[in-house]
Design the sequence.
């Protein structure tokens, strides 16, 4: 009972086989089993003989001839068996047609059970067709067996044995549905003389990149009808080139479906003719005669659209025989996405403006409440709290409805906008509800928060936000933009394909931005007009007067569309009421927001104008003022004529993904291809039947429909195998790309190592300027300013790249070249003086390596051996400062076996701890290679917390994975020390002026924070020890 038809080796019988309850059935089954056993024995003997032959065993000529004769007989037997199976299948189809004609198509005369077709027991075609119809109607596969059994019981005679498909068969039948719908789509596209528009879109479901392909043809009413050729094609990669190859693969697969269907029909009805088109009928060249290619507007989609247009031009010339000058294909961007990009930028600008204006207030609010001056976050919180659907568990929509009916009956309460998912037009569309309802919402939240133990983070957040006049003004600006710009532009984008008779084409959408651009300029120059109802509502009066359907729509939503009040006692024109309250407010709060609204209106206008003119974004291609290649001003008559009746949006592709997503949400672990098949059947209506109409499948001739169903059943297992192979190929490609990226990263790290070794060798050569005098001498010897600057950079690179001195690394110039040269010279002279007094370069490159597995230092055990050898010689080296601690210094060992310079005892004190300071730092393990710059410090004598702003340690290139050890201290155990085993920073080096101070780290609470070395300043601050001259 699988989804595909099995083919066996049993000989077909002319008469129907006996019922399993009869004895003859078991005798026949035993004979078949005996024949199969003999065949297997013979095959085993043949295999053994072949092995003996391969090993060099001599075979007589007679044995060889006998073996070849046996193989020929087996091939002939297989051929006869296949012919008998095909003939039995044709006989079964003829018998079923006769039974159906005799019974008049009623269920009563049909037998509910499997039948012997070909050489196996399979389900009848009419039962498979019924399963497919139930899947399209939304019946879960687990419920289909029960539905079929109940139907059979209600329509069959009493005592008739009933057998229905199982749950597993119903689930696998989605593969049959996928083959059937894709083949029907290819059939209709192949019969079309030309293609009008191509829609491509990509998405990701279950972390699997998918792509859909729809092609529009003209229907009987000369309207573009999109047909989905593939609902969820699994991509190998997500680049534009790979997406273009996927489009070609989907078209080729559709051609293969047509060839397979024609072959199956010829096997069932050899003498019957059909109108199934050939594989050459599916060609991108059909778009060459004024077709259009539509995608989204991201960078990958724009490149994909260009590649597809080139592919269409090549196919039109090579496959359709058109001249290059006669080929015309249009590029169409999705105007819904373009509009959302405009207002996305405007919303970001408004949010940034409010955040800057409310900075002090936001800093004073408890971070636990997560208050943000963003309308998107505000609307999502309102949906959670006040939605009457009550989908959020911590919301109070179920309480808010009865409270409104009891306290404010008969008032107009706007519906809360749905915010689930990634809706791009949510802010402008939902701001009107916030603007009109916020007074009721504040009253309800105040009532709830006054109750005992009524702490609620969501309600506290909303109470703070909704009582802010800036947020109210922001919602007012967004609502005005929605009524005046979004609604007309959205209607024009979604209905462009229906306005062809009025002379409106896809290129006419450029007139929208051409009209909007001067209007925004006027608002920037005259901010007060933002609250002028006549000006704002009349921005698109030119188009409203030109297009009667647009005028009818605008009049409908403001003058005819109604919304019920609380309690349902009456209705009101809610959008007209919103318009009046936006431009002529009656509420005192709304009147108080006039000044802020004008200010934010200017901000929004500037942001919108910037989005329109941004040459990096697709909207600029449609502006006539910028001579955009897709603008109305640059459109020729031929382009305008070809764009009549075309879609200006990518909605058909978006709808296909919506249907696929719905199936995934409902069915759980359904295969992605199966989910797309159900959505494709729903969108096309291939298996939909009503009292007045029927789907395309039922309009086919009976024999053509039967052969299509037989082909779909046979192809279903192959489709499932192919889908798993595509998914495996995608995973393999993704892993390979990750490996390539890793190899490239290691190669880049190798280049960095080479540079470090090069500059390390230069540092130990005569090329290094060792003293400040040498710096002045060498710089003055150069005559060119650029040569001086480059020489100074080389000297800096010797120290930064060769020895990991991150504090000296080169950064981008922030001033002129002259100031830059003087700055580098000063840094180099000072560093040379400081190193000559104290620091000695290591014997190997000192650098933070980024390559995996590359360590600049030896292991901790090797460092321990080095310290023990140096301590035996009477001189110990600090593991962090790399400085000699003196012959009599005794260094304690931490739990990791690494010495540090803390808790020193003995007559000799370290030279860098003469001032008696104790450094208390909060550092992190990732920043352990930096010095104590910018961290908290405490004077060891006065115990006053100060800020250390000393220069970073010259060898700042230590790795973050430094050995663990107790913190450094110059006077006993540091205050707040947590003992050994914690991470700490190295002691502070001598300052550039040569003064030595001791700043040793002190642990505080196990967490550490330090400022970046580039933000440090010279000197240290203390209440008693240091003078202002050192600050």
Sequence:
């Amino acid at each position: 009972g699988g989804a595909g038809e099995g083919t066996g080796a049993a000989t077909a019988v002319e008469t129907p086989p006996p019922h399993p309850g009869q004895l003859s059935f078991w005798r026949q089954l035993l004979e078949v089993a005996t024949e199969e056993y003999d065949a297997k024995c013979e095959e085993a003997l043949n295999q053994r003989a072949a092995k003996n032959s391969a090993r060099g065993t001599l075979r007589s000529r007679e044995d060889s001839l006998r073996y070849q004769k046996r193989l020929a007989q087996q091939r002939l037997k297989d051929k006869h068996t296949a012919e008998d199976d095909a003939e039995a299948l044709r006989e079964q189809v003829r018998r079923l047609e006769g039974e159906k004609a005799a019974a008049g198509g009623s269920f009563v005369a049909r037998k509910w059970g499997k039948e012997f077709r070909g050489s196996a027991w399979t389900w009848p075609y009419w039962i498979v067709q019924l399963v497919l119809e139930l899947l399209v109607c939304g019946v879960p596969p687990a419920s289909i067996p029960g539905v079929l059994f109940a139907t059979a019981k209600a329509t069959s005679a009493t005592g008739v044995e009933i057998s229905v498909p199982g749950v597993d068969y119903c689930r696998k039948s989605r593969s049959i549905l996928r083959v059937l719908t894709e083949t029907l789509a290819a059939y209709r596209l192949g019969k079309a003389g030309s293609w009008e528009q191509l829609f491509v879109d990509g998405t990701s479901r279950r972390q699997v990149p998918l792509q859909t392909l729809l092609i529009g043809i003209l229907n009987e009413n000369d309207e573009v009808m999109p047909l989905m050729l593939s609902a969820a094609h699994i991509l190998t990669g997500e680049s534009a080139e790979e997406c273009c190859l996927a489009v070609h693969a989907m078209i080729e697969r559709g051609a293969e479906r047509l060839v397979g269907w024609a072959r199956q029909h010829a096997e069932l009805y050899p003498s019957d003719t059909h109108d199934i088109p050939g594989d050459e009928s599916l060609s991108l060249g059909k778009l060459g005669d004024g077709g259009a290619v539509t995608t989204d507007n991201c960078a990958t989609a724009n490149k994909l659209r260009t590649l597809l247009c080139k592919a269409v031009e090549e196919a039109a010339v090579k496959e359709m025989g058109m001249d290059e000058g006669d080929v015309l294909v249009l590029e169409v961007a999705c105007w819904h996405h373009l509009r959302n990009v405009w207002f996305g930028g405007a919303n970001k600008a408004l949010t940034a403006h409010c955040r800057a204006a409310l900075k002090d207030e936001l800093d004073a609010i408890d971070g636990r409440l997560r208050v943000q001056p963003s309308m998107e976050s505000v609307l999502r919180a309102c949906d959670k709290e006040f939605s009457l659907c009550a989908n959020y568990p911590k919301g109070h929509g179920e309480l808010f409805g009865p409270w409104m009916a009891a306290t404010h009956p008969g008032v107009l309460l706007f519906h809360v906008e749905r915010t689930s998912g990634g809706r791009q037009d949510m802010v402008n569309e939902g701001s009107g509800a916030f603007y009109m309802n916020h007074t009721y919402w504040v009253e309800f939240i105040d009532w709830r928060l006054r109750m005992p133990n009524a702490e609620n983070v969501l309600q506290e957040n909303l109470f703070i936000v909704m009582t802010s006049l800036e947020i109210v003004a922001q919602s007012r600006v967004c609502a005005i933009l929605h009524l005046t710009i979004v609604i007309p532009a959205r209607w024009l984008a979604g209905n462009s394909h229906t306005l062809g008779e009025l002379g409106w084409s896809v290129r006419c959408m450029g007139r929208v931005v051409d009209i909007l651009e001067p209007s925004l300029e006027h608002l920037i120059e005259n901010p007060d007009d933002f609250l002028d109802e006549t000006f704002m509502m009349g921005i698109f009066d030119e188009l409203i007067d030109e297009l009667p359907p647009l005028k009818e729509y605008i009049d409908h939503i403001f003058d005819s569309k109604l919304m019920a009040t609380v309690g349902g006692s009456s209705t009101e024109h809610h959008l007209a009421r919103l318009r009046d309250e936006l431009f002529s407010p009656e509420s005192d709060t709304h009147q108080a927001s006039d000044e802020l609204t004008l200010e934010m209106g200017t901000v929004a206008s500037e942001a919108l104008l910037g989005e329109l003119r941004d040459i990096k974004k697709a909207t600029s291609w449609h502006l006539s003022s910028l001579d955009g290649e897709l603008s109305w001003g640059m459109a020729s008559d031929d382009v305008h004529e070809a764009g009549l009746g075309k879609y200006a949006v990518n909605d058909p592709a978006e709808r296909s993904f919506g249907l696929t997503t719905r199936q995934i949400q409902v069915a759980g672990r359904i295969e992605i291809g199966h989910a797309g098949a159900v959505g494709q059947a729903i969108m096309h209506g291939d298996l939909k039947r009503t009292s007045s109409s029927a789907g395309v499948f039922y309009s086919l001739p009976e024999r053509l429909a039967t052969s299509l169903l037989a082909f779909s059943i046979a192809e279903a297992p192959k489709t499932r195998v192919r889908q798993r192979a595509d998914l495996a190929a995608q995973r393999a490609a993704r892993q390979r790309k990750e490996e390539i990226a890793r190899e490239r990263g290691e190669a880049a790290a190798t280049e960095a190592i080479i540079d470090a070794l090069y500059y390390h060798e230069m540092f130990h050569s005569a090329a290094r300027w060792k003293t400040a005098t040498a710096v002045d001498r060498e710089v003055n010897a150069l005559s060119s300013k650029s040569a001086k600057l480059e020489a100074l950079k080389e000297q800096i690179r010797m120290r930064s790249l060769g020895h990991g001195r991150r504090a000296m690394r080169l950064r981008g110039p922030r001033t002129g070249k002259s100031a830059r040269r003087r700055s580098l010279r000063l840094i180099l002279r000072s560093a040379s003086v400081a190193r000559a007094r104290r620091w000695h370069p290591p014997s190997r490159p000192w650098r933070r390596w980024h390559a995996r597995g590359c360590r600049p230092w030896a292991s901790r055990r090797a460092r321990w051996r080095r310290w023990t050898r140096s301590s035996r010689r009477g001189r110990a080296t600090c593991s962090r400062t790399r400085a000699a601690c003196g012959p009599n210094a005794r260094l304690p060992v931490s739990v990791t076996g690494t010495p540090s310079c803390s808790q020193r005892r003995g007559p000799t004190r370290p030279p860098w701890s003469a001032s008696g300071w104790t450094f208390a730092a909060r550092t992190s393990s990732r920043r352990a290679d930096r010095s104590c710059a910018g961290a908290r410090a405490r004077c060891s004598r006065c115990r006053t917390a100060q800020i250390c702003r000393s220069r970073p340690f010259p060898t700042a290139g230590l790795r973050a994975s430094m050995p663990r050890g107790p913190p450094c201290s110059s006077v006993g155990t540091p205050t707040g020390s947590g003992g050994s085993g914690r991470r700490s920073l190295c002691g502070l080096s001598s300052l550039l002026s040569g003064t030595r101070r001791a700043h040793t780290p002190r642990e505080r609470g196990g967490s550490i924070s330090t400022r970046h070395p580039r933000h440090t300043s010279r000197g240290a601050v203390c209440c008693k020890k240091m003078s202002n001259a050192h600050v």
User: Anything to note?
Assistant: The chain is about 50% helix and 5% strand.
